[in-house]
Each structure stands twice: as structure tokens, then as C-alpha cells.
């Protein structure tokens, strides 16, 4: 049973990109999200604003010190900061909730970038792992201990029950393991965190919908070819078990007042179109933005780029922020076909979604 009726409508939602493949502290944003210059008297009705990393560094450090610039790494880690208005009679207050979505591929990159982005560890009560892939889970080996230390272990790590120890990819007939192995629930417990295991959709911390299994609805989003699991358990031992669907992947979605759903998809092995459709159907409102890895890089999936873009055009979101495993071919095609709603997601960037 999902507790979806508890999901708050947000008045704003801020995203800090702690780890991502691409670093680009300079490029100006697409017209759908740039703040209007000198328009402070008029309310900007665009869905989001963006602060480039270099601007943040200049504002905070009063210089552009290259030692303070984030590192790119193959993976994703986003801090989500949700705000809603809580009213009791005539009094009204703003409530803020924090969630860390994945940790990226490397503990030292996560810690280093998080320090540079001045991530408030003390505020992060919940961590969600999207799926057991090491480019999303390994960075949690520094993130979770840092947050545990700051909060005296008052942190919940939300995991899927699949508990896949190792994943592998078949290249030219041989399966290569992705290393190191994934942290499993017992490892997070030994760090001091509380572990919550969920197979089904549920609401975390009032503001964040964490999906169950993502419904496959399109014909062209057919998983990751040549992908395998090792469970290291009594049933399978070290046997490779085929798993092209990666059904343990979950997305996180928020409801932005007056706009609709903002969906965060780490790797989109179910396909970004399936993710967008599933989030919009389950939260029962239109999709305003999709953020994350669209998984359109690599010879096995690049043939889906055209169909993906055609389907996204039908969904008509206000904004697409694509990073991590989207790949340059898909990003170039998105920029050409959807120039007013596409913007690359880059490490060190700050994105703020505004309600209406
Ligand atoms: Zn991916
Ligand atoms: Zn993945
Ligand atoms: Zn990934």
C-alpha cells in the first residue's frame, strides 16, 4: 500500500548536483530556465532557474580557485531540497526537507565535491539508492558515514530488496564484473544508518515519492543488452544471472504546486519515456520536468534516441535536464529537437524549480 496521499505539494524544489559525468561551469542555460535580467519587478514564470558552478564559486569564494571546482565522474548524486507551506489557522511556516538521491561512483569524489558544494550533512535525514549499480552506490560509502556523523546516526537509507552484490556486462562473449561490489543493507547498518527496504512505491519524508517497479509501456525501451547479476547468496552463489530489465531501479518524484511532476531518474534502465509516463500516471498529474541520466549512451541503446525524442515531444514537459549516462549523441539530438526545454545537467550546478 502506497502512502501517496501524504505527498506534499511543493512551493519550491532545489537540486544540487554533487556528482555527474559532465563538468561545465560556464555555459549559459537554455531560454526555458534563465532568469530574466533586470526583471525583479515582474515575477518570472519559467519553471526553473539555474546557477552555474563558476558563478556560485565567485559569489561564495570571491575568486575562481580551481582547487574549489567539482570533479566530474561517471555516475550521479543529487541533493534534493523540497519546500512546502504548512499552515495552521492564521500562522504559516515554510518546511524544508532534504533527500540525497544516490552517491555517484567514488567515495572520495563524493566527499570532495560535497565539501565544495557546502552540502549541509546535518539536514539530510533520508538517502535513497535508485538501484544497485556501482556508479550510483559506491559514493554512499563516504556520504552515509558523513551524514551519520553529522546527525548522530539519525538517517534512513532507503533500498530495494533485490540486494544485487555484483553486476556484469557481456562484451565480446565474456562477462566483465563492475567493481567494487555494491554496498548491501548490512553494510549501511554497520555504518550506523537505519535501513528501510521497499519493493513498492511509497512517500519518504512527506515530499518525495519513491517508485516501485517501473511499468514498461513503450516498444523501444527494452533494457540493457548483455547485463547480468551476481547475488553471492545461498541460492545462486557466484553464478551470473541474466538481467536486462534491471527491475530494481526506482525513480524519485516530487509534486510542484501549479506545475506537476518533477521526476528524478538516475539511470533510466526502464527507459526515460517509461519513467516519465509511470511518474505522471502514479502521481496523477502532468509531467513538468525530468532530471537525471536518460541512458542513451552506448551502441546497444543509441538506436533509441529518435524514438525517445519523438515520445518526449508527445509528453510535452516544460524542462528536460539530462546528464550522467545520456551521452553526447542524445544530448546533441535533444538540443536540436527540443531547444527550448532541454538543458544538460552538470556537476556543481544548482537548479531551482518554482511553483505557480
Ligand atoms: Zn544509465
Ligand atoms: Zn545503472
Ligand atoms: Zn548509471
Automatic annotation (TrEMBL):
The highest taxon in the source lineage is: Eukaryota
- What InterPro entries does the record tag this protein with? DHPS-like_MBL-fold, Metallo-beta-lactamase_dom, RibonucZ/Hydroxyglut_hydro
Q: Which residues form a coiled coil?
A: none
Q: Which GO terms describe its molecular function?
A: transferase activity
PANTHER family per record: METALLO-BETA-LACTAMASE SUPERFAMILY PROTEIN (PTHR13754), METALLO-BETA-LACTAMASE SUPERFAMILY PROTEIN (AFU_ORTHOLOGUE AFUA_3G07630) (PTHR13754:SF13)
Report the protein name in the record: Metallo-beta-lactamase domain-containing protein
